[in-house]
Each structure stands twice: as structure tokens, then as C-alpha cells.
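Notes from the 1:1 (GR / supervisor)

We went over the backlog. Supervisor wanted to see one worked example end to end before approving the batch request, so GR pasted a single chain during the call. The sequence is below; no edits were made to it. Supervisor asked that the structure be written out right there so they could see what the output format looks like.
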Amino acid sequence: MLNFLQRIGKSLMFPIATLPAAALLVRLGMEDFLDLPFITAAGNGILGNLALIFAIGIAMGLSKDGSGAAALAGAVGYLVLDNGIGAINEDVKMGVFAGVIAGIAAGLLYNRYNDVKFPEFLSFFGGKRFVPIITSAVMVVAAFILGYVWVYPQALLDSTADWILNGGAAGVGIYGFLNRLLIPVGLHHVMNTLIWFDFGTFTTEGGEVVRGEINRFLNGDPSAGSFLAGFFPVMMFGLPAACLAMYAAAKKERKAAVGGMFLSIGLTSFLTGVTEPIEFSFMFLSPLLYVVHAALTGVSMILAYLFDVRHGFGFSAGLIDYVLNYNIAQNPFTLVLIGLFMAAVYFLVFYFLIIKLNLKTPGREDEEEVQTEVEEGTDEYEAKAYHYIEALGGADNIATLDYCTTRLRLEMKDRDIVDESSLKRSGARGVMKIGRRNLQVIVGTTVEFVAEAMKKQMENPGMTAPAASRTEQEQAPASPERTLNKEAFAMPVTGRILPLEEVPDQVFAEGMMGPGLAVDPADGTITSPVKGKVVQVFPTKHAVGLETDKGLELLIHVGLDTVKLQGKGFEALVEAGDLVDLGTPLLQVDMDTVKKKAPSIITPVIFTNLENEEIHVLKHGQAERGDKEILEVTRKKEDDGHE
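Structure output shown during the call:
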């Protein structure tokens, strides 16, 4: 259930992405800006049709391939549902709920019927064309039921809305607390949808009725803004101060490594109100700090309410929205004073808890050496798959199995029986717990082969353990010497060299994939840094795996979360099996496209199979493509100490 709700929350990001444009148009057209009513009307064209937009966005997001056919079915489903309910009882107003219901139905029906086949005389209506038809039929039934039944949940929702909206400080405080607390499981978007777009009504001077906190604020409702104002002190002041506290508490030898990351994500929060990079940097390492952060958000919401501040945003509570909507806000400067207070509280509380309780935040993590005990050979992936399944509690304990570039994404029936130590002994680089049942296992660039082997074994539960044993692995001869001198590695792309710890992704920053460096690229031409061969070009073309003549394996991963771009903006110039030399072009990347779609273009360059070797980064800062003396790989020095 949690996984399903997470998918809905993720799907809501499609329609929510339209809000900045709508808010900007509404604001620019007002009298104190451009005084052009048609611009305001254009923005309200989006805000006034959010239910339809939600139906389209959710249907597309839930569909297994993001199909436009699912989006069309969502729109058709909403129109059928809304008009059908109105014909039964014109007093029933479902608002965005109707769009959410239609979108979910259309997405699920698309996944079930997108490839349905009919007899030849009906074949025109088969496949994807059938999805809007079946969605319409289902929504007719839903309209009949909801037209009579919805009056009861509507009364309950209205009373709940009245309590929250009229609950004073307690109402806004609880909302602020839950808003942050639900981020790890992705359900905050679901709650925000109700508060921002459905609760409360306001009639404009033109007689139009608008719903939701954001719409009412932007259209001049003097009572709106209480459920938005309190976010500004947290996002502009509190969380950047938390970054400063985590930097101050970092280990001395790691301050330089994490300082750049904290500066970057703190500035992002201040300017734009995008806080996830900060929150995800500590929510899994130190859950206690995250609960404290959620509570402090509630405190900020209460303070803004008590000081009678009303302010709002179209995107998020950063400096940009703060300035844009300053003239229509009530007591907006008070937010700066509250923000300075919250900054002091965040810094003192975070620093005190981190130091006194020895909490693990970026720069304070324990360095673990993971021993790999997975057998090698022709059945390597089958062996890994077998041991992973055993460590995960067996095939019956795995509800769903998926994967991305480097990690398995799993939903477990009982996560408590998962043996994390065994997973790491079997080759996993790390394990991340998300929510109550979801698990991510960091495998590396071979994740696709491991995942497919796991699926095959799960479909054949009677399979026995692979013939190769761990004892045989332990008795195998030591790997040959694998080194790389400073003349044998060339800069793969022009840009700024960064320590790996500054990559705003936990998997890379903590070295779960292996040691290396990162580059903030200045252009889109990626070349081979070594002489060897291409062992893998990912289907989405955002990453390339290489192997040197001496057996060192490298991964060049362009940007973060770029797997979601499905290859858009990437052109592969080589194929698996190609021999490459220093400077051989590997990828051509449209950086403008990637910058717009991905959270970061920072590109990790990782050595994924080091065992008795260590990496030495010889240069930091700006470097040109093809430059040498960037890094070297040497054998680890033998410990000649005595116990």
C-alpha cells in the first residue's frame, strides 16, 4: 500500500510542476504589477482546472510507460465522473478528488488493458484505444455511486477542513509537522494537494469561486496564507542554518569535503525553497534529527500564525516567491525576524544533538570496510542472485523487485528478517531503508544482470545453490596487481574536479559504489580517461562502464538521477566491446537539456572493483579534457606494525 501511495505522490509532481507558471501569470497581471487582467485570467485558467490537470498527470505517472493514451483516458475519465455526479446532485463538489480518482483509475486500467486484443471486426477498438473506453465505463459507475454517497465524506471533509482552517495555531502547527514528516515516504504531496488546492473557498470580485490555500492567496483572499507563511523561515533560514551546524560538527579531516556540498544545498533552499537535498542528507543517517526538523517546522508555522503573517507561494517558500508575492502579503517582513530566530534555534539544536548524541550526519559517518564473499566465474550473477534472495528472507519475502542504474529497489513483506550483514558479505555496497517496507540494495553497475538473475530464480523457487561455493571463492588465488599511473589516466571532460564526498547523492558520496572523483562538467563531450575496452553502455546512455588492460573497472555516470531521462539528451558514441584509448569519445551530452531535467549534472568517475588497491586524487579544481596527472591507482601499503 505504501508503495502504491508513493507512486501517486510521485505522479502528483507532474501537475504540481505547472504551478510556478500559473502563479507567475496570476501575480504579474494584478493591478500593482502590470495591471493586465488577461494575464491573470490566463494563470487562473490553470488554477481553475487543476482537477482535470491532476487526472491527466496522475494517469500518466501511474502508467507503466508514461503513455499519452493513459493521460487522455485520465482526462476523459474526469469529464465523465464530474459531469455525471453533477447531473445526480449539483451540490456535490469533489474538487481535485475527482481528478485524483479518475487519474488513478485511468492509470491502473491502462496498465491492465493497453495491449488487449479483440476479434478482427472490433480490432480498431483494441489496445490503447480501449483504455479511454473502459475508463469511461468505470467512471460512469463511479459517478452513479459517488453522486449519492459522496455527500457523507464531503460533510466529514468539510468539518475536518473547518477544524484545520479554524484550529488556530494548533491547526497550522500540526499541518507543518506532518508536511515535513511525510516527505521520506512521498505522501506529503497527497496532503499538500488537499490543503493547497481544495480546502477553503473564496469568491473573487468577478464572481469566480476559487478553492485551496494557494489559489485563494494569489486571488486576494485576505484570510489565506496562514498555511503557507510558516514555511519561509524554515526554508530560507532554518535549513541553511542546519547545514552550517552539520558542517561545524563534521570531522576536521572531512570539513573541506562536505563544506562545498552544504554551501550549495543551503543556497538552493534559501533561493528556491527546494529542501530535499538537505533533508535527504540526514533523514536516513539520523532519523532523530529529521523528527526534530519536522517539529521545528510546526513551531515556525505557529509563530507565523501568532504574529498574524499571511504569505504565499506558487512553487516553494524561497526568496524568489518571497519577493514576488511581497506586495500582496500581510506582515511579510516579520518572516525575516522569525527566520533569524529559527536559524539560531536550528543551529543550536542540531549542533547540540549531533555532538552530544554522536549522530551520523555528512562528514561524521563511520568508515566501514565491507568484505566481499561472492564467488566469481561464469555463474557470478546467478550466485549473487541466490545469496541476495537468501539474505532478503527468500523469494516469498520479496513483494516487488525493480532496479535503476546501480541499486535494487525492493518492497519487502517483512523487512525485519532481512540480513544486512549477509547482503554486504555477498557483494552489496550498502543498504538503504525507505519507509516501513521498502529497501534499496546498492549493487553497482552489474545491477541489471543481478536483478534479472534474481527474477529468474524467483520464478523457479526450486532452484538450488550455484555449484561454486564461498569456500572455493576464499581459496581462489589472489587477484593480479592492478595499478594505474598518473600518465595512464586523462581527464574525461572539461570541468571542475570535486571530491567524491561533495556529490549530492548518498550512494556516491559515501563511496558505496567505490572510490573516485567527481566533475562538474563545463561541456557535453565525454571521452575515455583510460586505455581499455567498453564493457557496458547503459540503455539510457547516461553512464558507461570501462575496463583497463590490467582489469580495473570504471564507471562514468553523467549527472544524478539521469536514468529517469530515458536517454533524452544523451548520444552514445561507442558500444559494449569497443576498444578505446585515452581521449576516445564515449558520449555526447546536451547539457542544457540535462540541466533542466536532472537535479545535478555533477558526474562521478568511480573505480568499482578495487580490492588491494587505493586511489590518489592528485588535482582539484578546474581541468581540461585530456589533462593528465589527475589521479593514480597504487597497491595498498602493507601494514608492518606489530600487535
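Supervisor's comment: DSSP finds 25 helices and 19 strands in the chain.
Batch request approved.
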